[in-house]
Amino acid sequence: MPYTRHVVERGSSHSFVAKARPPTVTMPRIKALTTGSIPGFIDVVMNLNSPALLEDNLIWQAKTAGKRIVFYGDDTWVRLFPKHFMEYDGTTSFFVSDYTEVDNNVTRHLDSTLKRDDWDILILHYLGLDHIGHISGPYSSLIQPKLMEMDDILKKIHSALISKEVEGSLPYLLVLCGDHGMSETGSHGGSSEPEVSTPLVLISPAFKRKGVVEQVDLTPTLALGLGLPISQNSVGRVIQSVLEETSLRDQLRFLHLNGHQLSCLLKDSISDYEKEVGFEQFRVAEKAHGNWMKLYLEGNTSEVLTNVGKKVLRQYLEALAAMSAALSKQLGKYDMYSMIAGMVFLLLVLLLAMPEALSGAAAVDLPILSALLSLPFYLLCLLLASVHVLVCTSAESSCYFCSLSWGLVFAAVPALNLLFFILFSSLSQSPLRSSEVDWSLSELDVLLLAGTIGHTLSLAASSFVEEEHQTWYFLLNTLCLTVFQDVCRKYFREKRGSGDDEEHILPSKDRHPSAHPKAEIFSEKWLALATPPFTLLCCRLLRSLNQTGVQWAHIPDVGHWLNSSEHKVVLSLLSAFCLVLIYFLVQRRCSWVSKVALALGLLGVYSYRAAVGNVLFPWHHSGRTMSKGTVEARFVYVFILGILFSGTKDLLRSQIITADAKLKSRGLWEIYSGLVLLVSLLFRAHNLPVLCCCLLIQTLMAQFIWKKLHYDAAQTTIMHYWFGQAFFYFQGNSNNIATVDISVGFVGLESYIEAPAIFLTALSTYAGPLLWACHLVCYLSSERDRSPVAVGHGCYCLALLRSVPAAAYIVLVTVLRYHLFIWSVFSPKLLYESMHLLLTAGVCLFFITMEQSPSSSKS
After folding, report:
1. Counts of helices then strands in the chain (DSSP H, E)
2. Closest CA to 717 of 362, 379, 467
3. TM spans, by residue (predicted)?
C-alpha cells in the first residue's frame, strides 16, 4: 500500500498496532470499538444474527449530539445500530465466497458522498480482504491486488478531505483500522498474535508518531476529539500522543475526564474500589490538578508551573493505566443465577441417563404421575418459585432468566421439579442397585474408564485444553496397543489352551460355508493381528497432515506442502485415489441405485475441486480462470439427496410397513453413505486422506476386531467415541475458534442463507465425531447376534460420554471465571463443547426414537 506508507512515514498521522481482545470476530470487535468495553464470548454466537446494541456507545452519543452519520459496508453495523444512520447501505458479511461485489457495493457510493457536505461522520467497512483470507489464506495471490484497491480508496478519501480544508475550520480526522487480524490459515476468532494485532492509523494535520495501544483506547480518544461524553462502560484510556499538540491545560482536562469516567466505572464494578491503586493515584492526581489550576488562574507563568503540570500529567497517565488494567480484569459480568440454573438442569439430565447407559437397559421409565401426586413436589415448586421472585426483584439483579416472562418461568419451575422427582424415583428403582449386575472389569474396561475420566480431569489445565489433541492421540495409541494385546491373547494363548476354540473365536453361523475354512481362518487371524498396527500407522500419518493446537501450529505440515502451487499435480493424484478408495469402502452395503449415485457424486466432488482451482484435470492448463464451482457443487447435492432419500425410504419401510431388520440396516448404511459423500464435498482436497483413513479403519475394526473379539455395545461405543475425538483433530481442528473453516458454509450457494450455511459449517467441523457416531449405530444395527436394545444402549453410552466432560467443564469454567485465560482458552473450548453436545444429543435422540418406535407400535 504505497500511498498509506507515504502518509504514515511523511504525512500528518499517528500509527499504532492496536491489540484486540478475544474473541476476534466482527461483532464483538465492533462493540469494543464503539463502547470501549470488553465483549463476552457469547457474542461469538450472537455474531450470526447481531441484536441491537443497547449499551452506551460512541455512535449513540454522536447521534444524540446531532451528528449526521452515513454508513456503507458490513451489515453488522446496521443490525447493531438500527436507527442511528442518516443514510446506509449494508452488505452481507457471511458470504465469504464473494470478495469483489461486496467491496464494489461500498465504493460505488464514495464519489457522490465525498462531494456532499450534509454529513459529519462517514463509516466504511470493507470485507474483501477478510473473505479472501477465509477462502485461500493470507498468502493468496488475491491479497496484493485487494490491498492496492484499498490503498486507492484511502487516497481518494484523503484527497477529498484535503480539498475541503478551509482556513479556520476544524481539522478533519481520518481513522484507518481493522476489527481483527488473520491467522496463518486465513481465519480468525482466537488469541494468537496475528489475530489480535490490528493496524490503527489516525490521519489529521499536525501529528506524527508510532506505537502500540489497546483497541478499546480508540473509543475515549474519538469521543473526546468529537466533544462527546465517553461511553459509560469504556475501559480504554485516551491515546496521549494524539493530545501532544494541544495545550497542557487541555491535555490535563482530557485526562481528567477520562479518569473520572474510569473511576465511576470502577465504583460500579468493584466493591472495595477504594483499595485499588489506580483509584488512589487518580485522587492524588486530581488534587494536584486542582493546585495546578490555582497557579494557572493566578497568572503564574514560571517554569515551576510547567514542571508541576508535567508531573500531574504523568500521575494521570499512571492512574489511567492502573484503573484500565483493573477494570479489564474485573469487568466480566457473570449471570450466576442463570449459570447455576443451567448447570443444575444439565446435571439432572446427565444423572437421569446414567443408570440406563451403565445397565444396558436402553429404556427410560418415567414415573410422571407418581411425581405429580406427591406433596414434596408442590413444596419444592413453591420454594423454587420463591427463590426466583426473590432474586429477580432484588435491586441489583440482572440476569437472563429474570428477563423472561413470569408465565414461562412458572411453567419451567414445575418442569424442573418434575425432572428432579423422576430422577429420584429412577435411581431408587435402578437396576444398578441389583446384586445381579456384574461389575467385573477387563483390562480394556479399565483403560476406557481411566482414559475417559483422565481426559475430563485434564480440562482443568489451560495447557491441556490448548493441546487437547495430544491427549486424544495418546489415548488412541494406547487403545490400539491394548486391542492388539487382546487379539494376540485371543488367537494365540486361547488357541494353545483348547483346540476347539477356533469355532468360538471365529463364529461362522452368519457366513457362507467355505471350501477352505482353515485358509480363511488363517487369513482372518493375520488380518486381525495387522489391524491395530495399521491403525497406528494411519494415525501417525494423519498427525503430520495438519498441525494443530497452539505450541506447534506454526510448524509447516504435509497439508501446507500439498496446497502449494508447485505440488498441485501430487494433490490431484492423491485426491483422485482417495475418492476411488472411498467409493469401494462405502458402496458395499448400498443398493445398485445408490452405488451409481455415489460414483457420480464422487466424480462431481473432484469436478468441484477442479473448478475452484484446488486440483487439476489432465486437460487443464495452469493459467485457466477459476470459478466458485456452484454448478458442480449443486450437481453433487442432487446425488446426496437421492442417496439420503433412498436410505430414508428403506428405513421408513422397515419401521412402518414391515419389521425387516435387513431392510432397516441397508437404509441406515445408505444414509451413512450419503453423509460420507457430503463430507467429501465439504472437506478441502488435502483433507480427503483423513476421510479415507476414517472409512478404512472403520471397515477393518468392524470386520476383524469388534465382531471377532465379541466386544459389547458399551466397549464398542467408547472406542467409537475416542476415534471420533481423535479424527476431530486430524481434520486440523483445535479449541481455537480460528480453525473453524466458515468457507464450507457457502459451497454451492450464490448468496448467504443462514440455515444451510450454519448446517454445512457445523457438519464440516464435527465431521469426524459425527461419522464415527453414525457408524456406531449402523454397525450395532447390522449385527444380528447382538441384543435388540444394543443400538439404544450404545446411544445412551454415547450421550453419557459426551455429557460427562461437558457437565464437568461447565462447572469448571464457572469456578475459573476470573482465570487469566478464561477468554482466550476456556471460553472457546466451552463453545466447542456446547456445539458438540448439541449435535450428539440430536443424533442420539433420533436413533433412540427410531429404535423404540417399533416396540411402541406393537404394544
Report:
1. 35, 7
2. 362
3. 336-354, 366-391, 403-425, 569-586, 598-619, 631-647, 667-683, 757-782, 794-818, 830-850
Omega before 513 within 30 of 0, i.e. cis: no
What are the tens digits of pLDDT across the range 54-69?
888 889 889 988 889 9
Domain coordinates of the chain in residue numbers? 2-219, 246-331, 334-420+798-858
Please say whether the beta carbons of 742 and 761 come within 8 A.
yes
Q: Which residue from 720, 694, 698, 732 is spatially nearest to 469, judged by alpha carbons?
A: 732
Beta strands 197-203 and 13-19 are: antiparallel
- pTM: predicted TM-score of the whole model, two decimal places: 0.77
Lowest mean pLDDT among 152-156, 252-256, 691-695, 795-799: 795-799
Query: Residue 508's pLDDT is what?
Result: 35
Overall average pLDDT of the 297-302 stretch: 76
> Is it the case that residue 83 has pLDDT exceeding 60?
yes
Does residue 131 register a pLDDT over 80? yes
Residue at 538: amino acid letter: C
Nearest CA among 767, 762, 781, 620 for reference residue 688:
767
Say if residue 859's pLDDT is above 50.
no
Question: β-pairing, 121-125 with 87-91?
Answer: unpaired
Q: How far apart are the first and last CA of the chain?
A: 74
Q: Is pLDDT at 17 greater than 80 in this prediction?
A: yes
Mean pLDDT of the chain: 81
Placement of cell 435388540 in the chain: 788
Q: In CATH, what class is 2-219?
A: alpha beta
- In which region does residue 736 sit, left (phi positive, over 0), alpha (psi from -120 to 50) or beta (all else)? beta
Burial 605-637 (b: 16+ CB within 10 A, else e): bbbbbbbbbbbbeeeeeeeeeeebbbebbebbb
* pLDDT given at position 537: 95
- CB atoms under 10 Å from CB of 170, counted, come to 8
Using the predicted structure, report yes or no on whether residue 160 has a pLDDT greater than 90.
Answer: no
- CA 268, chain centre distance (Å): 32
Long-range CB pairs of 845-852, under 8 A, 24+ apart, other chains included: 847/777, 847/791, 847/792, 847/795, 848/362, 848/791, 848/792, 848/795, 848/796, 850/651, 850/655, 851/362, 851/789, 851/791, 851/792, 851/795, 852/363, 852/792
Q: How far apart are CA 757 and CA 851, in angstroms?
A: 30
Helices 336-359 and 790-815, packing angle to 10 deg: 150
* Bigger pLDDT: 586 vs 166: 586
Secondary structure element (H or E) that encloses residue 294, with its range: helix 277-297
Instruction: Say whether pLDDT at 428 is over 60.
Output: no
CA distances from 342 to 115, 352, 368, 393 (A): 55, 15, 22, 20
Q: What percent of the chain has pLDDT over 90?
A: 19
- Select the highest-mean-pLDDT range: 34-38, 333-337, 831-835: 831-835
Long-range contacts of 310-317 (CB under 8 A, 24+ apart): 310/248, 312/252, 312/285, 312/288, 313/248, 313/251, 313/252, 313/255, 315/281, 315/284, 315/285, 315/288, 316/252, 316/255, 316/256, 316/259, 316/282, 316/285, 316/289, 317/237, 317/240, 317/255
Query: Left (φ > 0), alpha (ψ -120 to 50) or beta: where does 461 sit?
Result: beta
